Amino acid sequence: MPEVVHKPAVDIQVSTLERVEGILQAAGEPVSKTYIHTKLKEMQAGTTPARLNRALQYLYDHRMIVSGSKGIQWTFSGSDRLRRAAALGRRI
Description:
9% strand
C-alpha cells in the first residue's frame, strides 16, 4: 500500500492577515484576489498566491468574509446581536 504524504498547510503571518483584513474593510465592496495582491504589493508587503489563498481561507472559515461571483467582501461585525442571530436564527 503506498504511503500517503500530507503536505503541511502554508504558513501565514498575523501581519498578512491584518493587512488583508484592512484592505477588505477599506474597500467596502467585493474585490478580486488580484486587487488584494496589488494592494499588498503597494504596501510593500507582497505575498505569494498560496499564502494569500491561505489567509483568505482562514478569514472565510471564521466567517469574516464571503466570496461570490463579484469577488471577496468583508462581512464580519462585532455586534453581539448579529452573532446571536446568526447562531440561533433560521436558515433561509
